[in-house]
Specification:
By secondary structure, the chain is an alpha+beta fold. It has 2 domains: about 80 residues, Glutaredoxin, CATH 3.40.30; about 100 residues, Up-down Bundle (Glutathione S-transferase Yfyf (Class Pi), Chain A, domain 2). It is about 50% helix and about 5% strand. It has 7 helices and 4 strands, in the order E-H-E-E-E-H-H-H-H-H-H. A 4-stranded mixed beta sheet has the order 2-1-3-4.
């Protein structure tokens, strides 16, 4: 009997960029993922989820509350998908990109949402995106020769959530359309 993979959150959370990253990763990996607005703790004795967070549940015992960890779990369920990379070296690079994108793109965007006048965060984020854009002129994917979790994470962030005048790497604007066609276009 296989364990069910369910993404729990409010209706708004399940439409968020974080949820979309997880849903796209599942689609690219060919992993079945259900969504639910029910309380993720209703069928278990584990600590209930915090308000305002998505939770990825795997069976009745595993609860994951961060996007990067959820992405890694999904990719590990389908190693042939290549979402973690094609080699141990690629896996390390993917992990590095996930951490970098969280700290250098997602966090500054959260600051900008809370304080749209934060010029320091805007400048730092602009510089990071310009550098990523320059890198993407020389290669198709962040790591290796096929899409990885790092590409999915960057694509969704740059297509869904960058305030003007921030540049989105053009490759991602063309390659990652909104759902439901994301799997066909990207994976």
């Amino acid at each position: 009997m296989s364990k069910a993979l369910v993404l729990y959150g409010s209706e708004e959370e399940l439409k968020s960029a974080a949820a979309r990253k997880i849903l796209v990763a599942a689609a690219c990996a060919g992993v079945s993922l259900a969504t639910s607005t029910a309380d993720s703790s209703s069928s278990t004795t584990l600590t209930p989820r915090s308000s305002g967070t998505l939770v990825l549940a795997f069976g009745s015992s595993i609860r994951i509350g961060t996007v990067n960890a959820a992405l890694r779990l999904i990719a590990s369920l389908a190693p042939a998908s290549g979402l973690l990379g094609e080699s141990d070296t690629d896996q390390a690079k993917v992990d590095g990109w996930l951490s970098f994108l969280w700290s250098s793109v997602d966090l500054p965007l959260q600051v900008l949402v809370q304080d749209p006048q934060s010029q320091a965060a805007l400048k730092d984020l602009f510089d990071v995106l310009v550098n990523i854009d320059a890198l993407m002129l020389r290669q198709t994917f962040l790591v290796g020769h096929s899409p990885t979790l790092a590409d999915i994470r960057l694509a969704w962030r740059t297509n869904h959530g960058l305030p003007p005048p921030l540049p989105a790497p053009p490759r991602y604007q063309q390659e990652i359309p909104p759902p439901p066609t994301e799997r066909k276009a990207f994976c």
